[in-house]
């Protein structure tokens, strides 16, 4: 298990999408709420960003996700620009990396396809 998953956090991180064997896994969740929040980043700098909350999945209660521009544009490409239309819709999260200031950092992205409903799912 990634040590970062052992700390209490406010937001979901890429390490939450890695299983006990170290394998990255996709996770499909339903959006419960989207709201603008002032997020405190590295160095104490604040930025206004979308904060996406998800519905519980079985016994799993996912942490909210801070959506950067890449994630927001991906969801908007599937469900439109109005964040109210995102509520109740499913997205598939996956762990990857991105280059920030020349360094590779862990991040979460959204698969750019609307998740298919499983047979018998509500």
Give the tags.
mainly beta, 5-stranded antiparallel beta sheet, globular
Span between termini: 31 Å
Largest pleated sheet: 5 strands, antiparallel
Low-confidence stretches: none
Query: Strand percentage, roughly?
Result: 35-45%
Tell me the number of helical segments per DSSP (H or I, 4 or more residues long): 1
* Total beta strand runs: 5
H and E string: EEEHEE
As a percent range, the share of helical residues equals under 10%
- Please list the strands of the largest sheet in the order they lie side by side: 3-2-1-4-5
Per the principal axes of the C-alpha atoms, what is the gross shape?
A: globular
What is the mean pLDDT? 88
Tally of domains = 1
Class by alpha and beta content: mainly beta
Query: Rg, please?
Result: 15 Å
Structure in a nutshell:
With 122 residues, the protein is mainly beta. Helices cover 9% and strands 36% of the residues.
Tell me what you see in this structure.
- This protein has 1 helix and 5 strands.
- The chain starts with 26 loop residues before the first strand and ends in a 12-residue tail after the last strand.
- By secondary structure, it is mainly beta.
- Strand 4 and strand 5 form a beta hairpin.
- The protein has one domain.
- It is globular.
- The model has no long low-confidence stretch (mean pLDDT 88).
- Helix content is 9%, strand content 36%.
- Strands 3-2-1-4-5 form a 5-stranded antiparallel sheet, covered by helices on one side.
